[in-house]
Amino acid sequence: MNDDQSGWEPPKRKPSVPPGLVTASEWTWRILLVAAAIGAVVYGASTLSFILGPVIIATVIAALLEPVRRLLLRWGAGPTAAWLVAFLFGFTVVSLMATLAISEFSANLDTLTEEASNGVGELTDWLNNGPLNLEVGGVDEAIDSALSSIRDDPTEAVTGTVSVLSTTTTLLAGGILTLLTTFFLMKDRAIMWGWFTKLFPETARPRVDSAGRRAWEVLISYTHVTLTSAVVDATCIGVASAIAGLPVAFALSVVVFLFAFIPTVGAVLSGVVVVLIALVSQGTTTALVLAGVVLVVQQIDANVMYPILASRHLALHPLASLLLVAAGGVLAGLFGAFIAVPMAAILIAIGGDLRRTAPSPLDIGADSPQA
Predict the structure, then answer these.
(1) Residue 368: predicted pLDDT
(2) d(Cα 338, Cα 260) in Å, to the nearest integer?
(3) Residues of the chain with pLDDT under 50
(4) Which of 57, 75, 196, 197 stands 20 to 30 A from 271 (CA)?
(5) 260-276 pLDDT, tens per residue?
(6) How far is CA 371 from the centre of its chain?
(7) What's the CA gap between 149 and 155, in Å, rounded?
(8) Is the Cβ–Cβ distance between 62 and 182 less than 8 Å?
């Protein structure tokens, strides 16, 4: 009698590795593979940061200027005139802001350093002789020495503090590359995008094109929302600084405007800068008043204006934004913090569009050669 006739089956051997460990190991090697790929991308980006940085900044600038180009097209301008006027408009605005801010700061540098020295002296006297009775001897001398160094050679102090601006040549080359990249993105963006989509198989090109256009619209929406928020914050805090008599009110408004493009953390950093300059130049009372103004403006922006302006696909929880900014800062410094949130929004939009346009199994079967 054979086994089939008797119904007898040989006993099954129990697996030597528990199923849970098998599942965990499969997940682990996949996670390690993804981590290695991300690490390779980050390493390549850091190696090519001199090129990648200007390209990313130029893309953001082009997205900022896109509403202007579309407005000109609606007003009847031709395609060439629309992108050219938009480009010149952006170049003029950025140049004027940078020129006015730098000239104002340079003109008031001696005044700021003198007021800062006096303010530090008053603060150390209060700490030494006030109710706290703290021993801070030597602090005011060290700060006075640093302020004197800034006053005597501000270029050396700045370049020694900010490594990305270590040489004027590097900064100038990066600025020229950003300007040229912005120019060609405004002029030939459609041609370049068409060339890029042709790198993919013909069947995948519609999905790639749809995902890319979706990502571009998300970036435009993000920059539009952030720009509106930045203009309101910079105007309110700049006017308050001018009323308070701060010698560099316009430069401070530019700082607030630029730092507004770093979600969550940027508002805090720019607010600290404003309050510190008010403290050393105008005293404690003015600093407390400006701190209140900054707090009120930023809270209204974060809890009222930004949620109204932001569309649903840009709605990220504040904790998610904070973690993204922190991760970007760890990986790529200030520039990483700047691009972390828009990059996340773009990737989410691309992933959602690819899932939405993914062919169903029935469509794949109908289009396959075997069907």
Answers:
(1) 39
(2) 9
(3) 157-166, 311, 313, 362-371
(4) 57
(5) 887 767 778 888 888 88
(6) 48
(7) 10
(8) yes
Q: Let me know if 113 is exposed, middle or buried by CB neighbors in 10 A (0-12, 13-18, 19+).
A: buried
Tabulate helix, strand, coil % of the chain (nearest 5): 85, 0, 15
Tally helices (H) and strands (E) across the chain: 15, 0
Q: Which residues contact 328 (CB under 8 A, 6 or more apart)?
A: 336, 337, 338, 339, 340, 343
Q: How many C-beta neighbours within 10 Å does residue 157 have? A: 15
Residue written as token pair 């605005």: 93
pLDDT in tens, 132-156: 555 555 555 555 555 555 555 555 5
Q: Where are the alpha helices (DSSP H) in 48-108?
A: 49-74, 79-107
CB contact at 8 A, 237 and 253: yes
Q: Which residues of 277-307 are buried (b: 16+ CB within 10 A; e: fewer)?
A: bbbbbbeeebbebbbebbeebbeebbeebbe
Half-sphere exposure of 336 (CA within 13 A, CB side): 16
The structural domains of the chain, with segments of one domain joined by +, span 28-107+153-190, 205-357
What count of other Cβ atoms lies within 10 Å of the Cβ of residue 116? 21
Structure tokens at 7: 């119904």
Contact between 55 and 181 (Cβ < 8 Å): yes
Distance (Å) of CA 294 to CA 167, 230, 242, 283: 34, 13, 13, 16
The residues, any chain, with a CB within 8 Å of residue 311's CB and separated by 6 or more, are 221, 225
Enumerate residues 6+ apart whose C-beta is below 8 A from 28: none
SS3 22: helix
Instruction: Please state the φ and ψ torsions of residue 184, each to the nearest 5 degrees.
Output: -75, -30
Dihedral over Cα of 346, 348, 350, 353: its sign: negative
Q: Give me the helix-helix angle, 318-356 and 49-74, nearest 10°.
A: 70
Distance between CA atoms of 58 and 80, rounded to whole angstroms? Answer: 19
What DSSP state is assigned to residue 8?
A: -
